[in-house]
Amino acid sequence: MKPKSVFYKAYFTVIALFFVALIIGLLVFRGWLADYEAAQPEPIVNKLIESHIKTGDLYSVKDKYNLKISDYETKSNFDSFLKSLTDGKELTGTTSAVKPDGCDAAYQIKADGEKILNVYLKKDGKTKRYFVSGCEFDSSVYKTLKITAASDAEIKVNGVAVKAEDRKDEPLPDIKSDLLKSDKLIKKQIISITDLLNEPESVTATSGKKALTVENDSGVYSVAEDFPEKSAVGDFAGKAASTYAEYMQNDSNLTNIKKYIDDTTELYKNIKSSLVIFSLDHEGHTIKDIKTTDFHKYNDSLFSCRVRLTNALKRNGAIYEDKFDKYVYLKKDGDTYKAIDMQNTGDSVK
Questions:
Q1: Between the CA of residue 316 and those of 245, 284, 305, 313, 320, what are the distances in Å?
Q2: Which of 135, 150, 171, 310 could form an S-S bond across to 119 if both were Cys, CB 3.0 to 4.6 Å?
Q3: 101 confidence band (pLDDT: 50, 70, 90)
Q4: 7 compared with 249, residue with greater pLDDT
Q5: Pairwise CA distance, residues 197 & 83, whole Å
Q6: CB neighbours of residue 86 within 10 Å
Q7: With pLDDT > 70 as the criterion, what percentage of the chain qualifies?
Q8: What span, in angstroms and rounded, lies between the C-alpha atoms of 277 and 53?
Q9: Which long-range contacts (CB under 8 A, 24 or more apart) does 89-98 make?
Q10: CA–CA dist 124, 204 (Å, integer)
């Protein structure tokens, strides 16, 4: 019986070695397959879709994948926005010919065929594996938040203090320097927050320990200012803007313009040289919907506010609306004011 025992030992040894070799082979193949997949861009993009977009967990890897997103964006805002883009939709990844510098492969992730996210990949020079070097939502997705405030106001967006680099002093019009000599000059600043996905959950302002009112005017936020001259400034700026709008449609004259606009300024010179003879022919007009907002007092001699109005022109039984939307700058002129400049706001009239 001994030879038979040797045979079975050898037989089972060979089988055991076969299974060991098979397991090692499978492990080696698995490692090779993993290396192969890692050397292909598609699996990386598919993993991003399956593990982070479909699950709604993209926010957790925003730093790892260098996702272009505002530092002021909240997780709750982000998650709800991503859900609105993807919920119930088929997500696919396709190659893109648009690649930023230093990018080895680019993909577009689409929801029901609509592009929502750009993904950029780079290949490691040593391992030859792809990794996500950056991603960003489609450019149509991002929003920019504009806030105007006095330079001494502290602003928070979604509870995050606005950084100094996001605050820029408003360029003042070319005005006489004596209006700016006051030691009490308080500059107005324009705060621009880019790469937001949603309207902010909160915009707050304080000065010292005092809370300030923040007004939302057609998507433009401004920190409200209160000062004794505010009502008079708004009233005069509205009249100056109305007279300007009328003149530009050949419904007023320079005598009226001089009542409201300083005739030593570039503003007056530009108005005087305007070719109003080419204005739209009409039988009558009505100034309506005058709205004054975003007031600022620089010092006791210089003020500004935003004025919006509509000059409704009557022509052949139809109404044509000429929109006005500018920042109007006023200087103190005895017991009244004079407009010294009018600047476009850069915002859409609503």
A1: 20, 10, 35, 10, 10
A2: 135
A3: confident
A4: 249
A5: 12
A6: 20
A7: 87
A8: 59
A9: 91/49, 91/53, 91/54, 92/49, 93/42, 93/45, 93/46, 93/48, 93/49, 93/119
A10: 45
Query: Model pTM?
Result: 0.78
Name the token pair of 256.
């009226």
End-to-end Cα, the chain, rounded Å: 102
CB 313, CB 181: distance < 8 Å: no
Other beta carbons within 10 Å of 135: 23
Give the residue-averaged pLDDT of 108-130: 90
User: Tens digit of pLDDT for each residue in 302-331?
Assistant: 999 999 999 999 988 899 899 999 999 999
CA atoms within 13 A on the CB side of 253: 1
How sure is the predictor about 180, in pLDDT bands with cuts at 50, 70 and 90?
confident
Angle between helices 41-48 and 2-38 (to 10 degrees): 80
Q: How many residues does the chain have?
A: 350
The residue written with tokens 């005895």 in the block is 334
SS3 283: coil
Mean model confidence pLDDT for the chain? 88
Please report the beta strands in the chain, taking only residues with DSSP state E, as ranges in sequence order.
91-95, 105-111, 114-123, 130-137, 143-150, 154-157, 160-161, 167-169, 188-196, 203-207, 210-212, 214-217, 220-223, 284-297, 302-315, 318-333, 336-344
Strand pairing partners for 125?
A: none
Query: What amino acid occupies position 141?
Result: V
pLDDT of 350 higher than 70: no
